[in-house]
């Protein structure tokens, strides 16, 4: 289907609403509002594909080598991004995204001039061709495609080589296909984060170099503006950012949808945080000041409550790269060894489906080690589209303890954030699993949906299919 035909079909579908205005849409039923919004989004998606292709062609005709005779330059613009920004009326970041994706689409469709290739030579397929194809046939939006392309980056090139070897290109292509299979259940931000994590697993040498570069770029600066207000700017390295984030999360978790407390004293402390009149930003600021004042002699329980902050690193045996439990960002071997020296290790053994530690019905609640194992397997809330990290989640028995004789086994439990855990129980959803197959979410009405792990280690037990 060509773009104009698709656009016309979208417009015809919208025309079925007779009038398109705030008043008329406000009078629609809930189902029609959802349909109307979806049609509008599909129309925008089709238009963005056209815009990216046009931006890619503009970029190929506005190269530095073209000088003032380039397409953009001849119209008074420095480069293709400036021209695209003016034509679209968008932000510069949006224009950059369209040009970047457009160049990828053009590279896949026109991989070189005929004069530069041997007669009859086969077409070299770039690793990102699956992403380009997904954009063109509407399976991925331009934002989703850009998140995957930017997150994965390009396959590394060995010193002295003309380009990446065939194995690296194939690995990156498979990674792109795996990410495309999850565009329906991941946000754009989550896709970008997971793409970076996969890149770091595929390229551990590059991952360490990037980690060290961020460490070298760490900085702290304070200044006073013209009104006498003092400001500060911090640029974190990876481990420092994770530690500060864990510290703030430990204190503000009750405000941000963290797990509910069973212990009455902890429940009371959590309610005090919820009822505190300060904003989250003010609470975070006061917490940082308290920590700085207290220093190394702080009574951690008074500052943080029963759950003290900490950074957990998940490491696969004999693997040079570790991952933060929350978020999944990669840490090189040296940083992992440093963490082990400080905090020690807890061994978690999983089977071929990622399921560890069965304890039957001896106890009602999942143990701390089981929750750690769930974090390794699920990587956070498994509800489609949710990005809550593992430390904010509760363990849900898919077979209810009383009603279904549920067992406190890892393969019969999943991680859900507090909101989705309550939503599941109150709205009539059920999660079922057939043997060691995928966990399936069964809504009260509508077809079941597969619940996918958010863990950066998922590839160990759920690898992407290889090309035929």
What does this structure look like?
The structure is a single chain. Helices cover 47% and strands 9% of the residues. It contains 18 helices and 10 strands. The strands form 4 sheets. Strands 3-4-5 form a 3-stranded antiparallel beta sheet. It has a 3-stranded antiparallel beta sheet with strand order 8-9-10, with no helix packed on it. The protein is globular.
Short description, anyone?
The chain has 468 residues and is mostly helical. The protein has helices spanning 3-15, 22-26, 30-60, 71-74, 80-88, 92-109, 129-136, 142-152, 166-180, 188-202, 204-216, 238-252, 264-275, 280-294, 300-304, 333-343, 368-378, 418-426, and strands spanning 219-224, 230-235, 313-315, 322-324, 330-331, 393-397, 413-417, 430-433, 439-442, 449-451. It has a 3-stranded antiparallel sheet. The chain has a 3-stranded antiparallel sheet with strand order 8-9-10, with no helix packed on it. A two-stranded antiparallel sheet has the order 1-2.
Strand count: 10
H and E string: HHHHHHHHHHHEEHHHHEEEHHEEHEEE
Largest sheet: 3 strands, antiparallel
Strand content: 5-15%
Number of helices: 18
Round the mean pLDDT to the nearest integer and report it: 78
Major beta sheet, strand line-up? 3-4-5
CA(first)-CA(last) distance: 26 Å
